[in-house]
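Task: fold both queries, return tokens.
Query 1:
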Amino acid sequence: MDLPNRIYFTGAPGSKWSGIAQKIEDLPGFNKSDRTAARTYTHNDFGGHKGAYFGNGMEFPADPDVVDNAYEETEGCKLVKSHDWAYDLHGLFRRAERDGDGIMLVYRPTAACLTWWYQAGGFNIKYPNYEWYEDHVKMHYEIERQNTAMLKFTSEIGLHWQNFNPSWTEQKFGHRCEPHQAYLDILVTYIG
């Protein structure tokens, strides 16, 4: 299965999108050359965050024109992670269509996202930078805003949400990957 050069990847903080990203990046054909020690955060028994994150307060802006700068190598599909992609999915969709890139969305209900984000470290998370979210009230608001934007976008263009499981990854990326466990409240969709 041919992968695009880039997959723009988004999910709200606490959606477990980073863990899903790592599972996908472990499939053949993905470029992980954005990973460095400074771009790594580990919590509990989970992988935490690995690789470049783009957006407000991050090392790189959520700008498709600069995303390749985070990667040391050019070969392989780049999974380009940003919470901010959710804010302009129609514009990103036009760009991805033009360039032959993909888009993947991860949805989890807001309350579950917020709970997990705090369990993962909340504002003590060392990477990526969450200072832009300021406080609990703004974090809750932005998670809800991102989730609503993703649901609205998928409804408008007719995308279907599914559970993240080995069959789904095989269908979308040509290889099966096993999630750490089944999370029935986490849904994914892919355009590519």
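Query 1 returned. Query 2:
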Amino acid sequence: MPKLNTHQEYIDHIQTLPHLIHPNVFGFHSNADITKDINETNLLLDSILLCSSESSSGEGQSLESLLEKLVQSILGDFPEAYDVAEIMKIYPVSYNESMNTVLTQELQRFNGLIKIVRSSLKDLKLAMVGKIVMNPSLEAASKSLFNGRVPDLWMSKSYPSLKPLGSYVADLKARLTFFQRWIDVGYPVVFWISGFFFTQSFLTGVLQNFARKYTIPIDEIVYDFEFIKDAPDMKPEDGAYADGLFL
């Protein structure tokens, strides 16, 4: 505290202090500023959205008509759930090929997400025309879709993602296309590592294949990495090619 005498001196001293307090004053790391700014921005945007009118858009379209178009655009080319039992006949559990198990486990995870997306959008269409009751979860989903956000209903069954609605749907469809091509054509030469629902299962599968091939305990194996310039046209003898890493 400053050694001052009068009230005005204290006021003058306070006015010299910075308006933005550095996190170190509170014992926080400087990165705490980033979290604070993100939280403040989200609070501001959430408050604006809460106060905004949902009755019409700039073009005079109603909430219902906008949602109907949005639901139709998502469902238009959205795939059905995978028939895992049939796929397991083509890619059965195999001691020498752990990727079969990785594939079926991934499809089971994606099936949960596909089903919740399709069912919620179909229910939303029915609710908008009054055929079923608009329950709280559907109402929350409709508001999220209208605001360009991924509904919490989907995120409860989803892989982690921070993308807005449009990018999320495009990303999800790209992931499902990757796995459909794997099913139809066979093992990809290059695996899209960030396209997996649970990336650790793929990484463990690569280790397991190597461990079983050379009869080495999996706990004794570590990864080695090689970066290549040209896209490969055939699988490596050991390990796997992968792209989509974020550094």
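Both queries returned. Flag for query 2: Strands lie at 190-192, 241-243.
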